[in-house]
Amino acid sequence: MTQPAVVNGDLIMDGETLDVLDPSTGNLLDRTIRGTFEHIDAAVDAARAATEGWRHTPYARRSQILRRVAELLRRDREQLALLESRDTGKPLTQARADADVASRYFEFYANVMEAYFGHSPPANDDIIAYTRHVPFGVTGHIIPWNYPLQIGCRTLAPAIAVGNCAVVKPAENAPLSVIKIAQLALEAGVPPGVINVVPGLGSEAGAALAGHKGIDHLSFTGSVSVGASVAKAAADNVVPVALELGGKSPNIVFPDADLEQALPVIVKSMIQNAGQTCSAGSRLLVQEDARDAVISGLAQLLADLSIGAGPDDPDLGPLISAKQRDHVTHMVARAVDAGFTQVVGPGNVTVPDKGFFFPPTLLDDVDPAAEIACQEAFGPVVAATTFSTVDDAISLANGTDYGLIAAVWTKNLDTAHLLAEEVHAGQVYLNTYGAGGGVEHAFGGVKKSGYGREKGVEALDAFSQTKSVVLKITR
Ligand code: NAP
Ligand code: MG
Questions:
Q1: Residues 239 and 254 in one domain
Q2: What is the pLDDT of residues 65-86, one digit of tens each?
Q3: Rounded distance between C-alpha atoms, residue 242 and residue 220, angstroms
Q4: How many domains does the chain have?
Q5: 186: CA distance to ligand 1 center in Å?
Q6: CATH code of the domain containing 277
Q7: CA-closest residue to ligand 1 atom 13
Q8: Domain-embedded: residue 346
Q9: Can you tell me the distance from the alpha carbon of 185 to that of 188, in angstroms, rounded to the nearest whole number?
Q10: Residues lining ligand 1, judged by CB closer than 6 Å?
Q11: Closest Cα partner for 305 from 342, 356, 270?
Q12: The pTM is what?
């Protein structure tokens, strides 16, 4: 069966289709409709028509409905996890965690939304003033293929919690779970038109949504170049945009770190979702006295990883597509040609022939100005560079165009907090690494990692506008 668009509660099947491939074999997994401008237009109209009813639905009722979505996501956890694992290639355990987080987003915003709406700023005694948070109206959501279930719910739950109605364009490469979320939301009692999903190509359905005059807010997660073009299209309609554009996030390791604790977390930060994570730990900055222990410890852990199809629940699954595998392959080859040391990687580790697999790869002695140290590979690849002083660590950490997250591994509180202060990033982790999770913690980048904040109570700010109401008392 072809997976539909979900528009105004109806399943739309008309028109051309797109193939959805299984990344562990390259074979056909499913099909979706190929969303057109007309589909997007119908979805925006449906969302617009739903806004008045939805925004005036009592908060307590809206909160109940969001909680019900969370319950259904939990009820269908296994089914959703398997769907996500097949579609994206990610190991089943990681897909289960994504399903749990997806449910948690709806539960979290169901809880916090009831206490959110408005406050009273101080004023003179002849003035009564209050601030309301009002929804934008129709929100557009352009979702990438790496965490569709999580990112879909990360943006949808707060958007509808504050009373917006949404039109979602999932990625061509992994659209299935987002289509399912829209159907579950209907079952949970979210009124038709509040969540609409139109699968399709970025250049067609995506561009139609980004430039649509009927949307009031746009959130985009994906690459820098597409993010910038989407923001330009939205700017023509004076539509505000939140951009989440990835990063080159460092693990910064000092010799006093507890390596037994640190190394498995560092490995996970680089191989989770095969490294196709905006907040992946794709750079490793190691103080020179810790270098030998860190590099040899990581090499051992990487060599022991199991590799296979997502539903078989290995440590490391395939990349999303042949295009992505070729991109990573060429980037690593250029790094090796440039003379950096491949400690583990292609040639040392065997991966299945079929499908889009790439071996876990550790490159050492990497020039911090090199492409592999500055650009996203978006694969299970880490580039290691050595530093001597705390100041060196800070300037290396800040030495790319990105600033999404960073992790500092040390027992020294001064060092930890100095780096937390000085490293330019939206999130800094001390002796842990928080890729993906953390529904409660505001998330988003600085510099080329984008702007706007998602997650946490801050997402409710991001998906609403304040309105100040001021009354002068005439005596
Ligand atoms: P991308 O092209 O930026 O895709 C992100 C989303 O934007 C997808 O839904 C895509 O649709 C859509 N899109 C593409 N062109 C569009 C357009 N002209 N107008 C509106 N929407 C458009 O990312 P990608 O090509 O899949 O991946 C390339 C690189 O982006 C990766 O290697 C990685 O560095 C980065 N990336 C970052 C994140 C992140 O979490 N920050 C996620 C994914 C990728 P289709 O996919 O259907 O074409
Ligand atoms: Mg897929």
A1: no
A2: 999 999 999 999 999 999 999 9
A3: 6
A4: 2
A5: 27
A6: 3.40.309.10
A7: 202
A8: yes
A9: 5
A10: 142-146, 169, 171-173, 201-203, 206-207, 210, 221-223, 226, 229-230, 244-246, 278, 376, 378
A11: 270
A12: 0.96
